[in-house]
Amino acid sequence: MVPLHLIHLHQVPVFEQLQLEEALLRADQRNWCLLNTGTEPAIVLGISGNPAELIHEQERQKHQVPMIRRFSGGGTVVVDQSTCFVTFIFNQESLPIEPFPAPILRWTEKLYQPLFAGLDFNLRENDYTIGHLKCGGNAQYLTKGRWLHHTTFLWDYAPHLMECLTLPKKTPTYRQQRPHSDFLCKLKDHLPLNTPQEFLHSIQQHLNILFKIQPIPHTTAQQLLNLPHRKSTKII
After folding, report:
1. Disulfide-capable partner of 45 in 49, 71, 157, 190 (CB 3.0 to 4.6 Å)?
2. pTM, two decimal places
3. Residue 39 and residue 37: Cα distance in Å, rounded?
4. What value does the mean pLDDT take over residues 133-156?
């Protein structure tokens, strides 16, 4: 079985999580999965996201939500205490899939589908959906010999924080210009689980079947932050 080192976090701020992910990707050569349940509210933009086009600044200031620029591409997301984060980092040689965005997305779709048995869970464009509603967003980073795929699953969300986001010029076709209230769904309304912790635990149990899991303490992984590597994650 393919070895997979796993870090399970709880309420670690998304800025610290992204810093750790960047270190795992750039300063280490092992395969990783990072799980995190919740964070203090934040707006996370992709590496090329323009705040002037993507953020309602008046709403952001009213709710005092910080902005973070992550090192990967993808869209802009609002995260909070009810967001579930799942990140995979693999060496290209570890899995029999092409190291390109679409094959990686299809691989993750197949990986997650057993966890959503009985639901109309699918990959639509770059999102995970239940029916016609988005339940998770994805971003990726591909580098020589390695790739990273991270997901924000919406166990729940705060509508007033979603108001910090504009309707961007470029949206998925299936969104059809719908506002957040008509475009997003909450996993807690669809899964027979009681907490976001239970959802991430179900993912960990599923990974135990597919990979040779080696749990790694958060404090041990943090030591990689001190190794020389490019650091692109920033508060803006």
Report:
1. 49
2. 0.97
3. 7
4. 98
Reported as a single tens digit per residue, the pLDDT across 33-66 is 999 999 999 999 999 999 999 999 999 999 999 9
Residue 187: name the closest of 105, 107, 106, 131 by CA: 131
Q: Which residues pair with 43 in a beta bridge?
A: 67, 78
Phi, psi at 95, each rounded to 5°: -125, 145
Hunting for tokens 């041990």 — which residue is that?
220
User: All domains of the chain, ordered by start, with CATH?
Assistant: 3-230 (3.30.930.10)
- Asked if 31 and 94 count as a contact pair (C-beta separation under 8 A), the reply is yes
Which residues have C-beta within 8 Å of that of residue 94, sequence separation ≥ 6? 2, 31
- The DSSP 8-state label assigned to residue 195 in this structure reads S
pLDDT tens profile 114-130:
999 999 999 999 999 99
User: Helices 101-112 and 196-210 meet at what angle, rounded to 10?
Assistant: 110
Given a contact cutoff of 8 angstroms between Cβ atoms, the answer to whether 15 and 126 are in contact is no
